[in-house]
């Protein structure tokens, strides 16, 4: 017989994940705790609703960088695990990614095939002796540490139960690089690839260029130490492009498209085509005050202090006959 707390030959030995490690399956021993997550074989799992995954990791007293890959597909609906297959709603999902009890980043996912990557660092002090690292994914309406201003601002504009059916594709644990600072400007799509910006997710992670902002909002996530944007200021260059022609009879499609382009070009010449920014809200602390804006033609430059402890939610105004875009982000002051 064994005494309480003692090990026997019948006890299962749990091997921790040893960084650097890429975890792509839910059938591994290191995945020790799950809550409202159904394990997968080719993915870590799929969330029924807001939930968590807990991994046993051998950090050995070192800090760790954690990369979390999330995505949506046809099964990303409420009640998918009970056989419900209603189509996805048109509204985007706004979800929190938390770890060790703290909000790390937020993700905005829009559409049927959206992918996003979250990146955050854990200090050695945040990793317990047993090595259990928890990754929680919560809807924006749940949990503490989210300001009521944010929840009121997005009410009716984002999908309820935004975590329902969300795929947890991969979790990576690795040591933070010694220096990863890149002073160059990032284009809009690369901003989302590196998790600085979340504006709906990327259908193709290898694309580069301008990021279209169709959700009417986007998230600016905390900047990691010694990475792009960690100089203290971020300048986001926002633009507009003519709204593409809708699905109208083919004989009128070209005329409609050309008319939209001419109207947009006229607004640019008049200097009134720049996309409006209505509010900037700290997810944790609430309204961040009047944003620092400069406009020229169809360009708005929004300058923010680099977020470190809480994401910002940027709420856009309407662009008549045009679609707002994220052209680029630069570290430093605006430079029109």
UniProtKB/TrEMBL annotation:
This is Uncharacterized protein. It comes from Nonomuraea jabiensis.
